[in-house]
Amino acid sequence: MAHAQSWCPPGATWTYEAGMSLAGFHRMTYTHDSVVAGYPAQVIDRYSAIQYPQPPPGPTFGGPPYITYYPVVVITREENEVVYTWQGGAWDTLYWFGAVPGDHWYPAHINDTICQPLVVSDTSTLIIDGMALRRLEVAGTTVIERVGCTWDMFLYCPNLIIDGPMGMRCYSDDEISYQLVSGACEQLVGMEEKEQAGTHVFPNPGTTHFTLDLTPGPHTVSLYDATGRMVHQQRTSDPRPVVHSGELPAGLYRIIVHQEEGGVRGTTWVKH
After folding, report:
1. What ranges do the domains of the chain cover?
2. Considering the chain, what is the average pLDDT of its residues?
3. Assigned fold of 193-271
4. What pTM was computed for the model?
């Protein structure tokens, strides 16, 4: 068994349900390092694809997904087994991986007088892809080293944590993959888009171009910006096609690959 890097290893990506009556997902990705208030910090972005319910007699979910992208949603740092988050001009505790039963902390940036503490009730070890990860039961939810909270990235007042449609779909990084729901991690109603082995993009991040690593056969490659607008499309039978992107602005892009024999694959690419 290997020892796990406690927080934000290369490739760290979290995918959560859109929540409540919505269909879709929020994907959080560790993108780069920074320095905030004198501390080395990690920057996490968010890509969301959400479909909204339609009232009767319309369909349950109508129209294309609403796509949003925010390049800086969460800023974190880790010190002495504690993961801190930066909000409102201050650092506050997000997770305490070194906690033992009876230890507690308060939800990040919640007034301590109106919220009960997050009390650790039990600890154990979870093995994921050969990694030994500490698991904490905290105020009715689960916090896993490296993975974080299986409800949402942020823990809320315990009385607001209820069983429901929200929750983590999956977590992955360059070394491990942890999936809590069956099927595609990034699935929308009426879509069969999957991010599978065989669809890789490099360099990522990149600047003037990127190369795809595809399965053999003809494909149609479509590139969408963070608003959901198609900005490029090309057909190719090359298993390693080069897509030129020099004229595109910096930001997050969604790559959709349609295979001629059927099937849709997706991945993301960041242009610096």
Report:
1. 2-179, 193-271
2. 81
3. Immunoglobulin-like (2.60.40)
4. 0.67
